[in-house]
Amino acid sequence: MNNLLKVITKDGSMSLRSEKFNENFHSIVGAYHETKNKFINPSRLKRFQNKSINVLDICFGIGYNSALLFENLIIELSTLNWYGLEIDKRPLNYALTDKEFNKLWNPKVVEILNCLNLRGLYKNKNFDCDLIIGDARKEVLNLPKEINFDLIFLDGFSPQKCPEIWSYEFLSKLKNKIKYEGYLITYTSSAAVRKSLKDLGFNLFNIIPTNSKQTRWSNGTLATFNKQQNNPHITKLSGMEIEHLDTKASIPYRDPTGEMSSKEILEIRRKEQEFSNLLDTNLWRKKWEMA
Ligand SMILES: C[S@@+](CC[C@H](N)C(=O)[O-])C[C@H]1O[C@@H](n2cnc3c(N)ncnc32)[C@H](O)[C@@H]1O
User: Fold this and answer.
1) Which residues contact 238 (CB under 8 A, 6 or more apart)?
2) Which of 2, 64, 209, 245 has the most CB atoms less than 10 A away?
3) Does the model's pTM come out above 0.85?
4) What is the mean pLDDT of residues 107-114?
């Protein structure tokens, strides 16, 4: 496929690599593994057993996060109102031609994904799903005014590769679409993204790494307005993580018009970092003995 190459990750699940962004869609540890541990487990979907839930999946891609979400919510007999935002139709289209990808899911989930791929929507008694193809920065403004989300998954390419969906301005639009007790979940622990979320009034939690042998200090970030959390998959930010938010790495990505190119966004931030008095991020790394 032009610009998109198939990748088999270490848990055997398929993923893609984008030549345009020069990045894989998932961690090489495992596409399925990443979805389960970074997005679905921290969502605590059992809370929605026999209840209704509104979900926004930004950068839907191949659709792993939502496929596993659908699978769990079918079991929980939940009523789902779902929107997916994605700029490129091809990843899902390609994945559905892959036998092993189809085998990962319950046939009902494959039916939903096929409908989303062909028609951009799926509706039955319990599920009402719309996949919107376009730039998430614009499409987020076209979501129905009356809907606020219980869960927002934010799964774009890394901030240095795709800064447009991590800007302070884009995150502030998400703030307006989330419920007080809603969760915004992302795999990134980028200081710039965390600082923007903090400045927008969110409380930040670290998603606990699942593998004890893992050298990573974080599996991502869960942001919510509700301070009190009873969620075994998250912890408060450590001292090291809090200090990270005082370094130059915390300078936000800015995109005031919502139309800037990634090159422009990165250049503005680079200049702001150059003239900033904040702590050099390398000194922070040294202090905490990071490579
Ligand atoms: C890391 S991949 C997503 C992984 C995904 N959640 C999955 O399960 O495959 C990032 C996705 O963001 C999409 N993307 C990039 N820029 C976007 C934008 N401005 N608006 C919406 N989607 C965008 C890419 O097309 C790609 O599918």
Assistant:
1) 206, 217
2) 64
3) yes
4) 98
First-to-last alpha carbon distance for the chain, in angstroms, is: 36
User: What sign has the CA pseudo-torsion 131, 38, 79, 77?
Assistant: positive
Q: What is the residue extent of each domain of the chain?
A: 33-287
**Residue whose entry in the numeric block shows the structure tokens 């599996």:** 219
Which amino acids bring their CB within 6 angstroms of ligand 1? 25, 59-65, 85-88, 91, 135-137, 155-157, 162, 164-165
Residues 195 and 245 sit within 8 Å (Cβ to Cβ)? yes
Atom of ligand 1 nearest to the CA of 91: 27
Q: What is the pLDDT of residues 247-277, one digit of tens each?
A: 999 999 999 999 999 999 999 999 999 999 9
Domain 33-287, CATH: 3.40.50.150
Contact 206, 241 (CB under 8 A): yes
For residue 41, the CA-to-ligand 1 centroid distance in Å is 21
Q: Please return the burial class of 104, using the count of CB atoms within 10 Å of its CB with bins 0-12, 13-18 and 19+.
A: buried
CA-based angle 24:6:130, to the nearest 5? 75
**Distance between CA 115 and CA 99 in Å, rounded?**
17
